[in-house]
Amino acid sequence: MESNNENQISCLVEQGIIYSKRDMIRILRDLDRVSYTDLIDSLSVAQGEGYVVEVYANSFDSTLVFNNRLHINVNSFDFLKISSQPEKNVELISGHRVIKLKPLTNILLTNQSQIEEEIDEQRLAITSQLACDNEVDLNYLE
Q1: Phi-psi category of 74—alpha, beta or left, where left has phi over 0 and alpha has psi -120 to 50?
Q2: Are 34 and 101 in contact (CB under 8 A)?
Q3: What pLDDT digit, counting tens, does each position of 95-136 carry?
Q4: Engineered SS bond to 56: which of 1, 84, 129, 132, CB 3.0-4.6 Å?
């Protein structure tokens, strides 16, 4: 039996490159506390720790990293790269800039009810943030 490669949806396990804004949001919204490094032309220009408090996609809000909080607009980046060797990392890549995020929270060790509550809050925030923006279809949240 022949398989039709054109109709297959990609499957990434622990590593890969993501171009879909929707998939980028799905990866980033699961992050909580992270360490970050901002690289321009491979030179570190900033680093620190913070919480991913917002992930969205629109054409008017900036990505902001300030006061230990990350507000990430996936439209600010060309693609996202995930890897798990030697440690779990997410890289947001746009031209000569790379923002590396290393998760500092293990979701499996966190209180389950707290996780569910945070996921629900984040889904509401994402849905309301994108309600007036048609660039990304997030109907899968419903």
Answers
A1: alpha
A2: yes
A3: 999 999 999 977 666 666 666 777 777 677 666 666 555 555
A4: 129
